[in-house]
Amino acid sequence: MSLRRVAVVLGLLEMFGPISMDLYMPALPELATELDTSDSLAQATMSACMLGLALGQLVVGPLSDRFGRRKPLLAGVALFAVLSLVCAVAPSIELLLAARFFQGLSGSAGIVVALAVARDLTEGVELVRLLAMLTTVGALAPIVAPVVGGQLAPLIGWRGIFAVLAGIGVALFLLALTALPESLEPADRHARGSGHEFGAVLRDRLFLCFLLAGACGGTAFFTYLASISFVLQDSYSMSPQLFSVCFAANAVMSVVGALINRSVVRRAGPVRMYSVGTVVTALAALGMLVSVLLGAGLVALLIALALLMLVTGGTQANGSALALADHGRRAGTAAALLGTSAFAIGPLVAPLVSLSGTSPLSMSITMAAAYGCAAALVWFAVLPRLRKRAVDSAEAVERAEVEVVPPGAL
After folding, report:
1. Which of 80, 239, 308, 369 is the most exposed, fewest CB within 10 Å of its CB?
2. What is the pLDDT of residues 295-339, one digit of tens each?
3. CA-based Rg of the chain, rounded to a whole angstrom?
4. In a domain, 399, yes or no
């Protein structure tokens, strides 16, 4: 199977995260009304799924390093389909929250295994390019899902949307079963427990820095996901249909960013693309906050968000490839930690931000702070360690060259 076809399959499997959120996002206000609950608890259904996505990766990642990629993936996708049906018939917000958590737990298999398979097959700049292709395919979900969700919500409601998710889960199970071969050879699998594998990865301080920066970026992005439907529909009186179009337009910007990154990363290098991208993202978030404080209106907010999505789409693949560079044989474990860092904190922060009501100001403050922290970590922790590692590698090569020179050859 060609890398392009693999990227399509892996991108579709990575749709679990965004499609679990984006398809029913236009129906969040309706969900809150029907279940007689608050906006904060309605948003918490997204948080529950995201927490499941985060914790599930910590289970599936090491399992995929031990037993291969296919078995954990197929089990997770099948459970995702079943739990989507449970969500569709949930009679209360409490049961829906529990079902959403376990839905995310099972759906995490697609996310972590997709990244691990990509690392199995490539490395370096080519890994960045493959991840950029994967991002491009996966970004079709946030483009299509909110548009479809906005049209479906008035027709079948939020319960019908979860039934649609169950059907998508079945289709992705069949795709993984028939189109994705095993990428981790038995000789490369680890027989030790997951605790040992996590310890081996976490002893890498550079990886830890990527982990923290990813957590900050994930917090900002999840705040956007959890808040944007309330901000645009309640604060700016958008209809669900118009909101879905605006949300999809931002997803298109992510695709454009990924395509730009793939085309220039060979010349600019992943380190430069990653470091510059984090700074531009932080500046765009700050610009969004300033526009809200000055009352610049909806157009200014949408422009800032579009720039954010553009740069984020072009930055993510570089960070993932750099973080996985030294962990090829533990790609599943390392991918799990990266995914968890991006998914774990945001679901806790977003409901807290919305306790007093979701507004453009609360969303922009949280996103600006989170992206600002990510940029600071990259410039003051990641880059110095990358430079030191490059110097150490160069010195090691020089020592090796000297050692192989025969005595008297000079």
Report:
1. 239
2. 888 899 999 999 998 998 878 888 888 888 877 778 888 888 887
3. 21
4. no
